[in-house]
Specification:
By secondary structure, this protein is of the alpha+beta class. The protein has five helices and seven strands; from the N terminus they run αβααβββαβαββ. The protein has a domain at about 55-155: Gcn5-related N-acetyltransferase (GNAT) (Aminopeptidase). Helix 4 links the parallel strand 4 and strand 5 (about 155-160). The longest helix is centred in the N-terminal third of the chain and has 18 residues, at about 10-25. The protein binds coenzyme A.
Length: about 200
């Protein structure tokens, strides 16, 4: 026998369904949409340049490149003729950082046809512009250029006693590959470092 209270009616059925739905909703965790917040910018050196302008050097930069090379390096300098050749070559890239017409720094990268390893031959920041991110910006530009040319690795040599450069490379993902005794003109040793480019 059916009890009166259990008799089916559309209104009762709808009420039961609503009660069920309310219970189910209470049991479901609330999903709140969190607005996307961009990650905070990486901490920068207080004197960091907003973003030094890096571009490929051309013939008008030749004098400034030679002057910077002569100011900073005593050995293993690139000559004017070598710079001129590299400015004009497909297998070399000379990058410069400039501010208000002044040369702040330069990098020279070499490529070989069909090779997946590019070589950072030189990286230099003018003494008065050091510690402001110019070297890092040039290094990153060299890595980007190597990636564009489908290189998988950027390799370089650095003097074993060049603390600033060693720190720069080590903190930017370069790993020691091999020690090269007597590598430089003055007989000092080098470390070869490389970084896989992703
Ligand atoms: C190495 C060199 C290019 C760095 O240029 P820079 O513009 O001063 O470099 P940045 O300001 O981008 O600094 C990058 C990093 O280098 C390291 N660095 C720079 N100067 C340093 C110093 N005096 N002591 C220790 N580490 C130093 C730090 O790791 C720094 O990163 P951080 O500030 O986050 O700690 C510059 O010192 C230079 O031109 N030296 C003479 C030429 C040379 O040795 N070239 C390298 C040939 S392999």
């Amino acid at each position: 026998m059916q009890r009166h209270g259990d008799a089916w009616s559309p209104a009762r059925s709808l009420a039961r369904w609503c009660a069920h739905a309310r219970r189910a909703l209470r049991a479901t965790p609330t999903i709140t949409t969190v607005p996307r917040v961009p990650p905070p910018p990486a901490p920068q050196h207080p004197d960091a340049l907003p973003s030094p302008r890096i571009r490929r050097a051309d013939a008008v930069d030749l004098d400034a490149l030679v002057a910077l090379e002569e100011r900073v390096f005593r050995h293993d300098r690139l000559s004017r003729a070598q710079f001129r050749r590299h400015l004009d070559s497909d297998s070399a890239l000379v990058l410069i950082a400039k501010e208000d017409g002044r040369l702040l720094g330069a990098a020279v990268v070499f490529f070989r046809r069909r090779a997946q390893v590019a070589r950072l031959y030189s990286l230099v920041t003018a003494p008065e512009a050091r510690g402001r991110g110019v070297g890092t910006a040039l290094l990153e530009a060299a890595e980007r250029a190597a990636r564009v040319r489908r290189c998988r690795t950027l390799r370089l040599e650095v003097r074993t006693d060049n603390r600033a450069a060693l720190r720069l490379y080590e903190t930017r993902g370069y790993r020691h590959l091999v020690h090269r005794p007597g590598y430089y003109e003055d007989g000092s040793d080098a470390h070869r470092y490389e970084k896989p480019l992703r």
